[in-house]
Amino acid sequence: MSVRELQTSPSVQTGTLKAAIFDVDGVLLASPHEHAWREALSGITDPNLFTTAMYQAHVAGKPRLAGARAVLQALGVPDDGRLAISYAERKQKWLEYLIQTGGVAAFPDALRFVQAVLSLGWPMAVASSSKNANAMMRSIRLESGPSLFEVFDVNVCGRDLPHGKPDPAIFLIAARELRIPPAHCFVAEDAPAGIEAARAGGMTALGVARHGDAASLRTAGADLVVTSLDEVTVDELAEGRMCRTPA
Fold first, then answer.
1. How big, in percent rounded to 5, are the helix, strand and coil portions of the chain?
2. Which of 147, 118, 148, 125 minimizes the C-alpha distance to 28?
3. DSSP letter string over 60-114?
4. What angle do CA 222, 103, 32 make, to 5 degrees?
5. What b/e sequence results for 65-80 when a residue is b if at least 16 CB atoms lie within 10 Å of its CB, and e otherwise?
6. Do residues 140 and 115 lie in contact, with contact meaning Cβ atoms separated by under 8 Å?
7. Can you tell me the mean pLDDT for 63-74?
8. Cβ atoms within 10 A of the Cβ of 243, count?
9. DSSP 245
């Protein structure tokens, strides 16, 4: 079955959720990607111009080279097409250094939520355009013992796809490999492009606003936006519904 054949209507049916798909950077891990992109700008332009807002708007969820081009274009750097390749390579070296020196941390609420979904017996996938996502997840341990990398039934991280988010291909592939129709999956994402991809694939989109960017996630089409995954009601999720825990 092709990716296109898996696509469904963006409408979401209440009470039908039964599988979870997670982005990595910004959802599960406070990874060093943003730091690496910023440091790699040294020698090209002022690294301080690269803000969290710029990272979320132009880089998060995109393949490395596409992200490099987007940053240089946003900063108005001349000859961005040529410089993007070297910038992306420098970013990768910085990222590898930060991973090796312990620069990866998990969000505690994310680990609790993954454990909660795991306890429901739901199939889970992890889907990130980053080719470094698996190495980062292997460095994180759950209280129950396994690494974060080990708890997912399906892993669609770092695969070479024709298009990055907001194209829904990565999430549709995850749904296919989970053997769950897209309409029965929710996607946890922190970037507008990821939310758009989830909605384009006919999935429930859970926006995780860790950077004060709830409005942009709502504008992208998120069905629910939270600042912490602790805000998601697990009892309702067990019934197939995505709801916020009452205050």
1. 45, 15, 40
2. 148
3. TTS-HHHHHHHHHHHTT-TTHHHHHHHHHHHHHHHHHHHHHTT--EE-HHHHHHH
4. 40
5. ebbbbbbbeebebeeb
6. no
7. 92
8. 15
9. P
Residue of 70, 65, 61 whose CA lies nearest to 167:
61
CB 176 within 8 A of CB 184: no
Closest to 172 in 3D by CA, of 200, 208, 147: 200
pTM of the entire structure? Answer: 0.82
Do the beta carbons of residue 23 and residue 127 sit within 8 Å?
A: yes
| The predicted structure's pLDDT at residue 170 | 97
DSSP-derived secondary structure letter, 182: G
To which residue do tokens 């410089």 refer? 83
Q: How far is CA 191 from the centre of its chain?
A: 7
Question: Mind listing the pLDDT tens digit for each residue in 148-206?
Answer: 999 999 999 999 998 889 999 999 999 999 999 999 999 999 999 999 999 999 999 99
* Closest C-alpha among 236, 150, 138, 137 to residue 186: 236
Q: By the 8 A CB rule, do 160 and 150 touch?
A: no
User: E strands within the chain?
Assistant: 19-22, 29-30, 105-106, 124-126, 154-155, 185-189, 204-208, 224-226
Query: Residue 59 has which token pair?
Result: 């880089």
For residues 199 and 8, give the distance between their C-alpha atoms in angstroms, rounded to a whole number: 10
Place of tokens 């990055």: 164
Supply 116's token pair. 């909660």
Query: Taking Cα atoms as reference points, which of 185, 200, 192, 195 lies closest to residue 21?
Result: 185
